[in-house]
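SAMPLE LOG
Freezer: B-3
Tube label: C17
Construct: single chain, 212 aa
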Amino acid sequence: MDMTDARDKREGARRPAPYAGVLRYPEPAARDRQGPCRQYRVEEALAGVARGEPGALETLYGEMKGAVYGLCLAILGDRPEAEDATQETFLKVWQSAARHRPGADGRAWVLAIARNEARQRLRSRRLSAPADLNGEPAVPEPAGQVHDRLCLRQMFSALDETERQIVVLYAVDGYLHKEIAAILGKPYATVRWKFRRAMQKLAQALPDGEDG
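STRUCTURE (predicted):
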């Protein structure tokens, strides 16, 4: 383990979560399980899916579901829709796994499919919004779900798309900054800088009474 990974883990263990209840950091033990071996497991699972091996898709889902859901949530800002987008992402991965080039970063490939799926849903939502205004009233949501959704939208609206992706990869699935840099194709220093700036923005956007 290099010094940057160790620093990431220390920061993850001590960093306060100004958005507790909406996003949560993984426990330090969960972060300890992350590392190069995860990329190997993803590559092996993708190859297994391409060969039609039983259980390969389930293994891939277990390795990637947090990151996929986190990215979809960051883009869509809606938990149920992010869950639907996550399921659709893995369906598309299953259908197109044979197109993945062996040796390429499998995590980045899966996350690219997730981003495209979420962005397509976001475009569809924007196009259909005027029609929805004249439709049937929406089914009321439980108060807790409404609160979480509004908190997510309020906080994420302060971040740009890259900042949202960095936050959820770190906070939801426990990726280290070094890994996030590789997944997003960004310099490590840029990821760390954007993460710090995003934390400042989130703290400023925190609703009153939600300071943990």
